[in-house]
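Render this sequence as a predicted structure.
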Amino acid sequence: MILTREWLYLLSAGMLEIAWLVTVKYSEGFTRFWPTLLLFVFAISASYLVALAVKAIPAGTVYAVWTGIGVCGGAIIGILLFNESREWLRLASILMIITGIVGLKLTQA
């Protein structure tokens, strides 16, 4: 599985989506300056990388992969940092989303 530059942009955008989510939590409703500032930097940077990725990858695939990385990463970070549920059904659901992301990559021409 070869990762093109656009796929690297998309994966990076997904990582920034996770960082954005963490800073949303730490901003405490936009009441803390530095997490709020980082939140906007991460969101704008992720959007820019998505715009670059969509030049060569179908928009539906880009959006599904980007949000999928954000959803899975956010759920995993929630488990690790914020003591959120580790219920087996939740973990299985995360695994299904990851499987879908890999499937989208494998079927993208």
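Summary. The chain has one domain: 5-107. The chain has a mean pLDDT of 94.
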